[in-house]
Amino acid sequence: MDDREELRSTLETLSTERVDPAFAKLDTLATADQVALMAEQGIVAATAVAAERESIARAVDGIVERLGRGGRLVYVGAGTAGRMGVLDASEIPPTYGTDPSLVTGHIAGGEHALRNAVENAEDDEQAGAAVGASLGRDDAIVGISASGRTPYVAGALRAARERGAFTVSLACNRDSEISHGVDVAIEVVVGPEVVAGSTRLKAGTAQKLVLNTLSTLAMVQSGKVYGNLMVDVQSTNEKLRARAERTVMHATGCTPVEAATALSQAGGSVKLAIAIVETGADAGTARAALEKAGGHLRAALAATRGAEHAD
Q1: Could you say which of 122, 177, 187, 193 is catalytic?
Q2: What CA–CA distances, in Å, run from 311 to 117, 142, 301?
Q3: Pick the catalytic residue: 5, 12, 17, 91?
Q4: Burial of 43 (0-12, 13-18, 19+ CB in 10 A)
Q5: Is-catalytic flag, 125?
Q6: Which pLDDT belongs to residue 14?
Q7: Distances (CA, A) of 7 to 55, 77, 108, 126, 163
């Protein structure tokens, strides 16, 4: 059996590569029926993600533990999977006020591959290994591959594991190659695609949902969210500055004028402005309380109020 024949044989075992006869008349359906079919399959993707909640939760806990040690979260993938990782990583700094190096995404083929197909790049196991080898014991890596066999991703996970990083695989097939040996395997089995083999569909949707969950909950547990409010959002335009005022108002019940005043005193920091309004402390005192609480606003408020009662 030559390499091409072996690969064809492997692909036939993957649910994401199967041709489902239920979708065989896709091109003959009315537009509304085509839309309904796509929507129904989107629900299948979401249901598959919910079924993996325990493994996703373990991944979140491991990522939070590494971030708490000063480490990073790194995504690696090829094609759609790589783009999902880069997209998720790029949205973290403006949403949660983090350094751009805290969460990063790597796609096989580099920046060019974000907008152009560089299909052979996914076979470059050594390029993936180079990414994994740049990590250490304080870091976490999520390898994303619909098939679960992408060499670029497998190489990254293997090298990262050898360096002691926390390793997570995200695949859309059961018992996938990249799942072997990792700390947490997330296998979101979405089944055959509406357009056979087009894993930018259900598989891509499932990947985005999982990555949303991993990064969002990692930020929540790292103190970047108070209740369900973004308190470390960067106010870089008028819409976000208005949102910052509304967030302070929602969190404290204060007036627009009080929110604007506190934000001015806090240098635009929503989290610090809330602490100022809630405790009546000056900016320096509130900032010190937040730093002592590791940036967790709820803990800082509790400590400040406790100190006031003690006095």
Answers
A1: 122
A2: 65, 48, 15
A3: 91
A4: exposed
A5: no
A6: 82
A7: 29, 19, 20, 20, 30
Q: Say how far apart CA 25 and CA 3 lie, in whole Å.
A: 33
Tens of pLDDT, residue by residue over 156-201, are 999 999 999 999 999 999 999 999 999 999 999 999 999 999 999 9
Third-level CATH fold of 227-310: Helicase, Ruva Protein; domain 3 (1.10.8)
Task: Check if 291 is active-site.
Answer: no
**Cβ distance 72 to 104 under 8 Å?**
yes
Kindly state which CATH superfamily the domain 9-225 is placed in: Glucose-6-phosphate isomerase like protein; domain 1 (3.40.50.10490)
